[in-house]
Amino acid sequence: MIDCLFCRIASKEARAEIVHEDPEVVAFRDIRPQAPVHLLIVPRRHIESLADAGEADAALLARILLVAKDLAIREGIDARGWRLVTNRGRGAGQSVFHLHFHLLGGRGMSWPPG
After folding, report:
1. Which one, of 97, 105, 96, lies nearest residue 38 by Cα?
2. How do residues 55-90 score in pLDDT, each as one tens digit?
3. 59 CB contacts (<8 Å, ≥6 apart)?
4. What whole-number distance in Å separates Cα of residue 76 and Cα of residue 59?
5. Which CA distances in Å does 8 have to 33, 59, 80, 83?
6. Buried b (16+ CB within 10 A) or exposed e, 34-67
7. Catalytic residue list
8. DSSP three-state, residue 72
């Protein structure tokens, strides 16, 4: 999608501090971090939200989870703990309508979030 910021980042038409990329997934630092480590993990292919993913996306979703785990280790937040969050819809806080996961760590997290 030409008007999707995360599609443009994934195709390198828009700038971001990319920390991981492979044929299916791109991860980059959030420009408004909510924790010392705040990465966004997105599929290269445009999917609006998790509600729009289907059975055919199961391997891609698993890949995203494994990338999150590997990034937590690389970023040094694995031992202390980290959070992985996705939002669906404006009411949940989704502001970019391209499926993405927030990997947050480096500080204590309270529950419930938000």
Report:
1. 105
2. 999 999 999 999 999 999 999 999 999 999 999 999
3. none
4. 26
5. 20, 23, 33, 26
6. ebebbbbbbbbeebbbeeeeeeebeebeebbeeb
7. 100
8. helix
Closest to 72 (Cα-Cα) out of 22, 106, 34, 25: 106
Beta pairing class for 25-29 and 82-85: unpaired
Amino acid identity, residue 72? A
Cβ-contact 41, 74 below 8 angstroms: no
Task: Indicate the pTM of the whole model.
Answer: 0.95
Q: Tell me the C-alpha distance between 87 and 113, whole Å.
A: 12
The answer to whether 101 touches 82, Cβ cutoff 8 Å, is: no
Confidence of residue 112 (pLDDT cuts 50, 70, 90): confident
Q: How confident is the model at residue 106 (pLDDT cuts 50, 70, 90)?
A: very high
